[in-house]
Amino acid sequence: MAAKVTVIGIGPGHPDYLLPVAERAMRAAQVLIGSKRALRTFARPGQVQIEITGRLEEVITAVNEYRLTAPVAVLVSGDPGFYSLLPYLRQHLTADDLEVIPGVSALQIAFCRLKTAWQDADLLSLHGRDWESVRPRLTKPAKVAFLTDREHTPARIAGLLLQAGWPDCPVFLAENLSYPAERVIWTDLRSAAAEQGFAHSVMVVLGSA
Ligand SMILES: C[S@@+](CC[C@H](N)C(=O)[O-])C[C@H]1O[C@@H](n2cnc3c(N)ncnc32)[C@H](O)[C@@H]1O
């Protein structure tokens, strides 16, 4: 009989932010599927390591093949419930096939650095998504947190918000959260539009108090 597949949230990246229950599940797995960064950090000698590339169908093929003979874990960054592979896995596996273990989202740690609550923030992702997918949710200035990527950098997002008529307002940028190279800055929307870097980051725009 095929084993359950464990989807593990690894948190923002540094092992200090991995939950003990996630660490136990990772140790129990004989096959780890994850990004190069996740495998480099968490895989142990003797575990089969399968790197996730852009071809997601290969993940399903590997999961279905290996779970017949060995416990398989899929490592996702942050929390599995927030813009991860989980919805894709659910298209191919039933709920009974899966065990899901939470992780600390990049947004949670960003708001901790900001020292403010996120219960009143809109949480959006531009990681691998286009602007049109979020534009309808940005009709008026608000407290918004964005996941970014190399295409939708904070500079690009700031420019698009200014074009959409948002006023200059405070902006918080946080990259490499949890790592020694972590960098966080306070700036404003106009300056953020000229900011270089922060590609692997969380951007929080305080468009309303
Ligand atoms: C595919 S999304 C995954 C989000 C994840 N499920 C979560 O809960 O944080 C990847 C994006 O999360 C953000 N991210 C993940 N780890 C981060 C870190 N250590 N520092 C800053 N941002 C991070 C970046 O915006 C990155 O492009």
What does the secondary structure layout of this molecule look like, with pairings?
Layout: E1 5-9, H1 20-28, E2 31-34, H2 36-42, E3 48-51, H3 56-66, E4 72-76, H4 86-92, E5 98-101, H5 106-114, E6 122-125, E7 143-147, H6 154-163, E8 170-175, E9 183-188, H7 189-192, E10 201-206
Parallel strand pairs: 1-4, 1-5, 2-3, 2-4, 6-7
Antiparallel strand pairs: 7-10, 8-9, 8-10
S-adenosylmethionine binds next to helix 5, strand 8 and strand 10.
Summary tags:
single chain; 209 residues; alpha/beta; Cobalt-precorrin-4 Transmethylase, domain 1; Methyltransferase, Cobalt-precorrin-4 Transmethylase, Domain 2; five-stranded parallel β-sheet; five-stranded mixed β-sheet; binds S-adenosylmethionine
Please describe what this structure looks like:
The chain has 209 residues and is an alpha/beta fold. The chain has two domains: 5-104, 3-Layer(aba) Sandwich (Cobalt-precorrin-4 Transmethylase, domain 1); 107-206, 2-Layer Sandwich (Methyltransferase, Cobalt-precorrin-4 Transmethylase, Domain 2), CATH 3.30.950. The protein is built from seven helices and ten strands. The protein has helices at residues 20-28, 36-42, 56-66, 86-92, 106-114, 154-163, 189-192; strands at residues 5-9, 31-34, 48-51, 72-76, 98-101, 122-125, 143-147, 170-175, 183-188, 201-206. It has a five-stranded parallel β-sheet with strand order 3-2-4-1-5, with helices on both faces. The chain has a five-stranded mixed β-sheet with strand order 6-7-10-8-9. Strand 2 (31-34), helix 2 and strand 3 form a beta-alpha-beta unit. 36% of the residues are buried. The model has no long low-confidence stretch (mean pLDDT 96). The structure holds S-adenosylmethionine. Residues 12-13, 76-79, 82-84, 105-107, 127, 147-149, 174-178, 200-202 line the site of S-adenosylmethionine (SAM).
